[in-house]
Amino acid sequence: MREEGEGCDDRRDEGRRGTRAAVHAASGGRLGAAHPRQEGPTDLRLVPPALAAWATSAVMLDAAPAWVTGTAVGCLVLAGVLMTLRVGRARRVPGAMTGGRSGWPAVTAAAVLVCVAAAAVSAGLHGADLRRGPLPGLAERYATVIAEAEITSDPRLVRPRVRGPAPAPTAVLIEADVRRVETRDGATLVTRTPVLMVVDVERRRSSSASSASSAFSAGERPSPWLALLPSTRVRVTARVVPPADGGDTAAVLRVRAPKVPEVVGEPSAAQRLAGRLRAGLREATDGLAPDARALLPGLVVGDTARITPELDEAFKETDLAHTLAVSGSNLTIILVLLVGPPGLAQRVERRGLAPRLGISLRTTALLGGALTLGFVIVCRPDPSVLRAAACGAVALLALATGRRRSLIPALATAVLLLVLYDPWLSRSYGFLLSVLATGALLTLAPRWSAALRARRVPPRLAEALAAAAAAQALCAPVVAVLSARVSLVAVPCNLLVEFAIAPATVLGFAALATAPWAMPVAKALAWCAGWPAGWIADVARTGAALPGAGVDWPGSWTGAALLALATVALLLAGRRLLRHPWWCGACGVLLLLAVVQPPPLTRVVTGWPPPGWRFAMCDVGQGDATVLAAGAGTGVVVDAGPDPVLVDRCLRTLGITRIPLVLLTHFHADHVAGLPGVLRGRQVGAIETTAYQEPVDQAEFVQREAAARGVSVTRAAAGEERRTGGLSWRVVWPPADPTVVPEGPNDASVALLVRSAGLRLLLLGDLEPPAQRALLRSPAGPLLAGVDVLKVAHHGSAYQDPGLLSRAAPRLALISAGADNTYGHPAPGTVAALRAMGAVVLSTDRDGALAVTGEGAELGVAGD
Fold it and tell me: Within its chain, how far is the Cα of 776 from the centroid?
């Protein structure tokens, strides 16, 4: 029976070989024309060397030369001993070198030791770059020098978050290698040291409103520093200071920049070509909607200069930040256009442009390699781009070898080569996230996709859902370390943008390629790409604005470990839940409710907002944003705070969808920078502001935001009275007399006396004591006596006029201030004075968002 069975097996093997031969003959003998051969378990032998090199690089960057030398020599000696023993055993036992895998542990251990030695040497040399030369010593003395530096990355504009009345100064960050240093004593020193140049730039007004730059808003002329290309040499006068975080720079050069940089060396031809292509893409996208105009260059070539802080924050909140940087998916999409779906790449029915043109699989892989090289040149050889190229090369290596299971070894090889080439990647969170995401797609995603298909989930949906869930499961703990937050909308948001990324990327690259030669064609392609790009931005903004979009999480490696354990527990529970569709549906509904938090349900569960609220003070940090109720879903918004995301979230929890009027008391950033969040997705009748248009940049920002959404802007003046629904108010400051010039923006604040049914409120903006005293003497002064609620001026600062506080004599005093702010708001003396008058004093820094209810004896206040 055994021999008969063997004969049957032999005949079946011959039949299989005949079938394979027939398929190869029909395909013309091209590699990959037949189904890929079956292989054994995944080859993981390269994984330990790659991980060992990664860990060694991270440790040895700061190590002393003696430790580096000792580690390298010791590992090489041990590797030599292992291989000697291995060869000796092979001589004693014939065939031991080739007779199976019994000797592989020794070979793998030797390979690990060799990689550790190589990583130690590479990291030691890169770390020494930061310690040699004159710059470290000059940084310790905070010396001022004249330096000649070669730029190594694209300059990027940094607009810090609003943390006070005005944004911090705008700066341009440039990574560079200093080649020559001239000190004050006349010494000239030659070196090659990596530095970070911080160039303080002055925004200048342009006579036209055309957007001449991707980095500055319309009406602002770009800084010439932003036009510098990598490999350009510049001469600067700078103060040398030590780096703040001890990263991959030896020093920071604080440059007091002239209007035009002094260029002493032109960029290379390759960088000029890349710069021309990137500039062409920016020009092609100039006519698009703001979101598409900002996102498309970032999606295609990693040019994020147009991304606003608000949009950037939305992408981070939804874990879509990978779409703002060049990633492996960008290159893979282009390669798929050439190769076709990876699952069919090694079959007769493979797709893509290459088989249609009759190109063999190996030649296709070579063309893909050339495309990858061009991708690196155009997108700049920065670490993020190198990660993208390495991850994209995984698919090319699999195609060239014809082995589907070569993906994991190829990824391990890419990691090994990259950390040896640039050891600083071993400490890069971006590199870690890139490797984890790619590993998830290669290991977890296929298994999860098969499990979902087995439960009758459509194949395409199963693949997309498995990929998004796998990447999120492995990357979420690292993201939590960076942001101290866990996104609950990451998987659905990634699913919603998945189908839009490919067309936006392909059309964007087409626009990039055609822009230098046929700009009208490039503009048409960019217009087509603008639709999916706009969709991606809309998904990010909508997801980030959901009240339950994320939960706070400890931002430490301990928190990451806890999240990893929670993820494992959730996955184990999920496997059991998949057997019970009704339980899955119930859990899905509960998660949806937790994320969306519909106001009626939220009010029942949390009591916020309280029924019948009249006035709400949003918790927006160090700034002002308040709402006057004017009917169901309707409210008058007074000030917008410093953060669009926070004010939008507050208005959503309050259920505000219609805003008859947005009143901005004055133009300090902590009152107006959140305006885009107020306008997002709501019906807005008009915007009213003070007549004092200072600071100019913030006043023009308001004008641009209003014009972009077709909302009219008017000016408020004392004596104006308005009404909407049961809400009425009177403007009591500033005076209508144009000859009265306030001392500054604070004293130009619009002050309101509001009546909501039987409730009287006084909103003072940021008025300082001089304006408060003038208001008290004005015709509206007698009207201010005995109010129910006072919105204390200027975040409860110490500068208050006692006479005005005494005249108002509020029963309830509310203060908007940020927790742990550096201004000392609210001032203890102001709080004590109000309490001495019998007022109940509450502030957002301690009590969160506040809502006033009732009137008369029923006056009350509730906190979020």
Answer: 48
Q: What is the DSSP string of 707-719?
A: HHTT-EEEE--TT
CA angle 554, 560, 565 (to 5 degrees): 115
Give dist(CA 532, CA 504) in Å, integer.
Answer: 6
Q: What is the pLDDT of residues 497-519, one digit of tens each?
A: 888 888 888 898 889 889 988 99
- pLDDT-derived band at 620 (thresholds 50, 70, 90) equals very high
**Three-class secondary structure of residue 703 per DSSP:** helix
| Nearest CA-CA partner of 128 in 196, 63, 176, 175 | 63
Cβ contact 663:637 at 8 Å: yes
pLDDT at residue 659 is higher than 60: yes
Q: Do residues 859 and 812 lie in contact, with contact meaning Cβ atoms separated by under 8 Å?
A: yes
| CB-based burial label for 200 (10 Å; 0-12, 13-18, 19+) | middle
- Give the β-pairing of 840-843 and 812-815: parallel
**Angle between helices 407-421 and 104-131 in degrees, nearest 10:** 30
Q: Judge contact between 859 and 788, C-beta under 8 A.
A: yes
Query: Is 626 in a helix, a strand, or coil?
Result: strand
32 Cβ contact partners less than 8 Å away, ≥ 6 residues apart:
345, 346, 347, 350, 360, 361, 399, 402
Tokens representing residue 597 in the block? 């938090």
pLDDT band per the 50, 70, 90 thresholds, residue 55: very high
Beta bridge partners of 662: 637, 687
At 151, the amino acid letter reads I
- Measuring CA to CA, how many Å separate 762 from each of 642, 825, 827? 22, 20, 20
Give me the helices (H) in 161-257, please.
none
Given the structure tokens 């990327």, which residue do they identify? 505
Report the SS3 class of residue 683.
strand
Contacts of 229 (CB under 8 A, 6+ apart): 151, 154, 267, 271, 272, 274, 275
Separation CA 538–CA 561 (nearest Å): 33
Please tell me what DSSP assigns to residue 412: H
Which of 192, 213, 291 minimizes the C-alpha distance to 541? Answer: 291
**Would you say residue 385 has pLDDT above 80?**
no
Region class of 260: left (phi > 0), else alpha (psi between -120 and 50), else beta: beta
- Residue 592 Cα distances to 36, 319, 492, 600, 647, angstroms: 42, 18, 11, 15, 22
8-state DSSP, 342: G
